[in-house]
């Protein structure tokens, strides 16, 4: 009997210990859950910002992408000469100063946009002009970082119109390290307007920079170190859009849109294979031209049947240097307007009646402007040739 009572007491004690241990374990789990920190206001705001940016991801056709060494990634940008040049500060000015700075030189080589870093590590954008054989003292660009909202503003590229600027910057408005921004020049106030973040897929939580659009091949380029080792960078080649369009949430799932935002696979953007084929052909033509380009030539301008100029220094009439710069700007505007017109004409048949009426008015106005630009281009070319030929004839 005593043995049975003893056995019962042992079983009850074991049960009590088990219940106590289980309760203690539950208390510990609960304590652990309570100790988990709540998201900070900054973390919540960042998540909301990321969600908004992903939802507003732009539809972009990516033509190609390739990983290269970060030290010489600029050499893989194969741009037409008319799109200008991009270079490192050190190579451009033949110096060992400013190792983190970059330069964008216009087509004719008489104006550049550049970055410079001060002793505190702050980087800003400047502009400089070539007078004779010397560059003027760089002047800080107004409007881009007047309020010091960015710590580093770098990787400048100005379009052929001389008004649309792309650059990369680090600041609280971004989502990663360097984000890509754009701004337009306000001629009236002689300053750039408030910079606008380019959003996704161009930006990410990593560094994204050196955004370039070659209007002459209708091809865009930018670099990103997203998902890359420290010493490498991925260069993305894409087809620029005339009008920004986002993904329809009724047509794509949130996961698909997030994939587009992060460029999970460029092949996912190949919806229109015919459009892709045209883009690939243009890119190949640019690459072929880049390989065949004669070294040492800045541009090609025919003076007469026996004479062609390749450098600004070839012009004998000083005024023609300025005229050629005007000619380059006119050509860039003409090309941009021509592409916009083609997009409008392509869209017109599928537009609604109200849209067609509005498009018809815009197309007629643009065609008139296109003809005016064409006449200006022909007149400027003629004036340059006449002045040069007159000088050469009289000199003889």
Explain this structure.
There is one protein chain. With 396 residues, the chain is an alpha+beta fold. The chain folds into two domains: 47-292, no CATH class; 301-395. The protein is built from seven helices and 17 strands. The chain has helices at 2-35, 41-55, 89-93, 254-261, 273-292, 319-347, 353-395, and strands at 61-69, 85-88, 102-105, 111-117, 123-131, 134-135, 139-140, 152-158, 164-170, 179-186, 191-192, 196-197, 208-214, 219-224, 232-239, 301-304, 307-309. The strands form four sheets. Strands 2, 3, 4, 5, 6 and 7 form a six-stranded antiparallel β-sheet that branches. Strands 8, 9, 10, 11 and 12 form a five-stranded antiparallel β-sheet that branches. A hairpin with a 5-residue loop joins strand 8 and strand 9 (164-170). Helix 6 runs antiparallel to helix 7 (353-395). It is globular. The N and C termini lie far apart (138 Å). 24% of the residues are buried. The model has no long low-confidence stretch (mean pLDDT 85).
Spans where pLDDT lies below 50 across 5 or more residues: none
Number of domains: 2
| Overall pLDDT | 85
Helix content: 25-40%
Number of distinct helices = 7
The sequence of SSEs as H and E is HHEEHEEEEEEEEEEEEEHHEEHH
Portion in strands: 15-25%
- Helix/strand/pairing class, anyone? alpha+beta
- The total count of strands amounts to 17
Rounded radius of gyration (Å): 30 Å
